[in-house]
Amino acid sequence: MSDELQQKLSIVRAEIDAIDAQLIELLNRRAKCAQQVGEIKASHGDAGYIYRPEREAQVLRRIQEINPGPLSNESVTWFFREVMSACLSLEQALGIAFLGPLGTFSESAATKHFGHAARLMPQVSIDDVFREVEASHADYAVVPIENSTEGAIGRTLDLLLTTPLKICGEVVLRIHQHLLSSETSLGNISKVYSHAQSLAQCHEWLNRSLPNAQRIPVASNAQAAQCAAAEAGTAAIAGEAAAERYQLPKLASSIEDEPNNTTRFVVLGRQEARPSGRDKTSLIMSAHNRTGALGKLLAPFSESGVSMTRLESRPARHTLWEYVFFVDIEGHREDPAVATALAELGQRAAYLKVMGSYPVTVY
User: Fold this and answer.
1) SS3 category, 233
2) How far apart are CA 25 and CA 28, in angstroms?
3) What does residue 233 show for φ and ψ, rounded to 5 degrees?
4) Residues involved in catalysis
5) Cα 317 from Cα 310, distance rounded (Å)
6) Span 273-307, pLDDT tens digits
7) Contact 322, 245 (CB under 8 A)
8) Is the pTM value of this prediction over 0.85?
9) Which domain holds residue 321?
10) Does a structural domain hold residue 314?
């Protein structure tokens, strides 16, 4: 390395070192401000919930608006989520329940939303995820609600019907499926373990590449990785987190049939989220068994100028051949137009439950 090059690099590296020193000072100043917020709230009797999803969304949107680059908005959003996660943990590490074991896409969604300072609490079933928060053993739950390829997650929808928990956030996670195995050749694979939805998401790839391999559904992709790590001649379909956690090489990468395969998760808590400025409201409703009842049920949204972004039907569990409808609309329930629509809907619906208003996910 020439002296001239060494000198130029030394100048830039010295500037980097100086900036790092400023960053660490500013990060700790921010952490102290976050602690002061907690102390002020506690002195006014408002210390019950240290995490405010609407405030976090507002901070992240502002960061994106003032970001001059060259770092992408995705990168700065990830960084500031981790900063906020670390600051929150100075008061209390949030306990986050999700479908385990460690290494699932649900873990990735929980970490994406709450950062690595959160206390992860993997559960053996979606029912247990709900139960942990309902019993106040965990602060929040992260559960899958729909996949762009396979549709709604039925068990989550069923539990939303009866839970007292509120939806206070959402996470959208791009799903990349990998074939993980200690084997070095596809020809050595006789069994493929994975969650049933992941097997379905990779159906065509499996038909082409492993037509004779037995497909074995298990409770989660992380469990599939555990099975593949323990048994010769097997593979698992799972994500990056499982590959790293269980030290399984990728025999094939991104094998999902749909290139834009995405899963949406919702965050459940015991408190309502306040308006953030860009929100979504989720609700469950049913129509009276009359001609044109569904059309009349949906009319308040258009009459109030409220946009509906999702309508999903599901059989009612208490009555044969009757259905409930899961609906997402734009806006917060406190917004005047949304409040008007919900009030009218309450008069027309046979059943209505507002599951929560929450910030639209910030990528």
Assistant:
1) coil
2) 5
3) 75, 15
4) 263, 265
5) 21
6) 999 999 999 999 998 877 777 888 899 999 999 99
7) no
8) yes
9) 279-359
10) yes
